[in-house]
Amino acid sequence: MFRLIEHLQLAFYSLILALAVGILIGIFISKYTKLAIPIISVAGILDTIPSLAILSVLIPLVGIGKPPAIITLFLYSLMPIIRNTYVGIREINPAIIEAAEGMGMTEMQILIKVRLPLALPVIMAGIRTAGVLLVGIATIASLIGAGGLGEILFLGITSMNIDLILAGAIPVAFLAVITEIVLGRLEKAMIPRGLKK
Amino acid sequence: MSNVKIKLENVSKIYPGNIIAVNDLNLDIYEHELFVLIGPSGCGKTTTLKMINRLIEPTKGKIYIDGKDISRINPVELRLNIGYVIQDVGLFPHMTAGENIAIVPKLKKWPKDAIEKRVTELFNMIGLPAEIFSKRYPHELSGGQRQRIGVARALAADPPIVLMDEPFGALDPITRVILQDEFLKIKKIIKKTIVFVTHDIEEAVKLGDRLGIMKDGKLIQVGTPRDILKNPIDQFVRSIIGADKIYKRIDVLKVEDFLIKDAPAINLKCSLKEAEDFMLKSNTEAVIVIDEQKRPIGIVSWADIYQSNDKKIPVENVLKTINLQIEMGENALEAFKKMANLNLPFAPVVDDNGELKGIITFNNVMKILVS
Predict the structure, then answer these.
(1) By the 8 A CB rule, do B255 and B360 touch?
(2) Is the pTM of this model over 0.80?
(3) C-alpha dihedral sign at A116, A120, A122, A124
(4) Which CATH architecture fits B257-370?
(5) Which of B231, B215, B209, B221 is nearest to B29 (CA)?
(6) Is B163 within 8 Å of A104 when comparing Cβ atoms?
(7) Does residue A192 belong to the interface with chain B, where contact is any CB pair within 8 Å?
(8) What is the value of ipTM here, to two decimals?
(9) A111-162 tens-digit pLDDT
(10) Which one of A41, B76, B138, B348 is separated from B313 by 20 to 30 angstroms, measured CA to CA?
(11) Pick from A96, A98, A197: which is nearest to B92 by CB?
(12) B-chain residues within 8 Å CB-CB of A116?
């Protein structure tokens, strides 16, 4: 049970971090579109690097334990959040933005009252992707002593104990499914009524 | 219609690559008039419109509102006082119709109850019951309803100026006509300076107090619909107004546009003999009989003259009265409808004093429309 909470904590903290940074970057590159392709590419490349490799690179920099694990997870979940924020904002009908400008809304008012609410469904989909991804990858974080359900799983693998493997793997799988469902619900609840067809 | 509300002075918009969207435009738009910018796509009409609320900045020239150079006004401040309606409506899909209308009053920080009152008032004005529609989202509305909300939203904070960019362009023809008619009524109540962009000449003529016809970034002709329809300045304007289809726009012409001034008329005291001579001389089938105050009383035709052997009696004894008088300034179409109803081939036209000014005839209609 303790490992489960630890696992969730790892995923949750890195997701919050990724949300804060990812949405900001997404907004930024939707405004300065020249940067969009390079930044999304970099985030995409980060996603392709094996998680073990990132973890090992980070050890000499920040040591072992939770910090490097959270940084790794954060880097992984950045990509879907940046990309979806960017796409969500760019996909808004230009006529709506023009109307907002024409009515005398400031840049900031447009962002908060128009762009973000309208991009929310797409951003939420990105968050859901990231969340599920994180629950899975957080398993590996135990290899550098960050704890989590991976601890049980890997203990099972090294000791060839099938019960321990299942005790780690089954909760991880459940957690991923539950994350998907919870974030999906949240997504539905958060989308403004006018955007539901 | 005397105060200049919006003044464009040598305004040009040149895009990179020397693409000239608007070319040295000079234009005065008067207070409380509805000025229509019309022209083919790419003529610079929308660019001109958007320079008025600084969505586009002119490359050269100045625009003044109430004599103030708008480049010195904060664009946000400027736009809060200019209503804006666009073709795609631009209603915010995540807000209800009521919330959409309330946007500008909210931005202007009106008190809550004032906003509510205003929103209800606007729903009434656009003919949609507030209790049904204020809580609806744009996707729950028809195109026409959305466009009405768009107009209400632009009027919400009671701006002195409203810019409309093809507001009825995306609607089906029937809805468009209905909304235009509604808008004409609203326009009379609200007393705003409205700049209206369209490529539909019918719409321009119907709604506009004055039109500005644009081509390649230049204003080709400015005038009332009537001026332009009557005297198109060149072939381009003629093609825009569809000179071949002008009969469709008889509705904007007035009685005086069809007036035949030198209508034959004689005094009621004239004898039949005098009438006969007069009619022979003027080669006419009938003459109008007028009294001492030059008011038309009736007509005398050859048949009336021949029915009496006594050529010395005055025409007033034989004339046929006409029970139709058209007044100067009347809408020509209405006048011709009255004539048709009474089966009259012509009708006398009088001024304010009832004095005969001339006649209008059906025969003349085609001649004038085709010329």
Answers:
(1) yes
(2) no
(3) positive
(4) Roll (3.10)
(5) B209
(6) no
(7) yes
(8) 0.78
(9) 999 999 999 989 998 998 888 888 888 888 777 777 778 878 888 888 888 8
(10) B348
(11) A96
(12) none
Using a CB-CB cut-off of 8 Å, the residues of chain B touching A114 are 92
User: How far, in Å, CA of B61 to CA of A65, rounded?
Assistant: 65
Residue B138: both structure tokens together: 């744009």
What's the maximum distance between 2 C-alpha atoms anywhere in chain A? 68
Interface test with B, best of A103, A105, A108, A114 (most B CBs within 10 A): A103
Question: Touching check for A107 and chain B: CB below 8 Å?
Answer: no
Q: How far is residue B45's CA from residue B52's CA, in Å, rounded to a whole number? A: 11
Residue A107 near residue A47 (C-beta atoms within 8 A): no
Contact check, Cβ <8 Å, A195/B94: yes
B38: Cβ–Cβ under 8 A, 6 or more apart, which residues? B45, B197, B198, B199, B200, B201, B204, B211, B212, B213, B214, B240
CB distance A96 to A118 below 8 Å: yes
Cβ contact B92–A106 (<8 Å) = no
Residue of A nearest to B102 (CA): A103
Distance separating the N- and C-terminal Cα atoms of chain B: 31
The rounded distance, in Å, linking the Cα atoms of B37 and B210 is: 9
Residue B167's closest CA among B156, B158, B157, B154?
A: B154
* Residues of A in Cβ contact (< 8 Å) with B88: 93, 95
Closest to B90 (Cβ–Cβ): which among A96, A106, A197? A96
Angular region, A178: left φ>0, alpha ψ -120 to 50, beta rest: alpha
Condensed to tens digits (0 to 9), the pLDDT of residues B93-126 reads 999 999 999 999 999 999 999 999 999 999 988 8
Mean pLDDT (whole number) for A42-68: 78
Burial class (CB in 10 A: 0-12, 13-18, 19+), A196: exposed
- The answer to whether A108 contacts chain B (CB < 8 Å) is no
Closest CA to B92 of A31, A93, A197: A93
Indicate the domain borders of chain B: 4-253, 257-370
What is B4-253's CATH number, 3.40.50.720, 3.40.462.10, 3.40.50.300, 3.40.50.2300? Answer: 3.40.50.300
Q: How far is A130 from chain B (nearest CA, A)?
A: 25
Cα radius of gyration (chain B): 27
**Domains in chain A, please, with CATH?**
2-90+116-191 (1.10.3720.10)
**Residue B38 DSSP class:** E
